[in-house]
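go over both lines:
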Amino acid sequence: MTRRKIERVQTGVRLEKRVLKVLKAVAAHHEMGLGDLLEGIVLHSFEGKAPFGPDTLAFIASMREAYGLDLTAEDSHKLIEAED
């Protein structure tokens, strides 16, 4: 495997709470950092490729249930902040 040198920057991205919980669980499941997982998801998406195989999708389904994540891709452009 050829390693590629890159430059990373710190960012203050805001995510829906349950989405973040599932992402952290998936990252831990694969023994990788959250940033590495997000980079992989984005790079796959940029090429129109699915980032996860059947085993990981099954794990994600169980984590979605465990954390009560009922949002879908259809909801992605309809989200608003909850009022305090």
Observations:
- The mean pLDDT is 96.
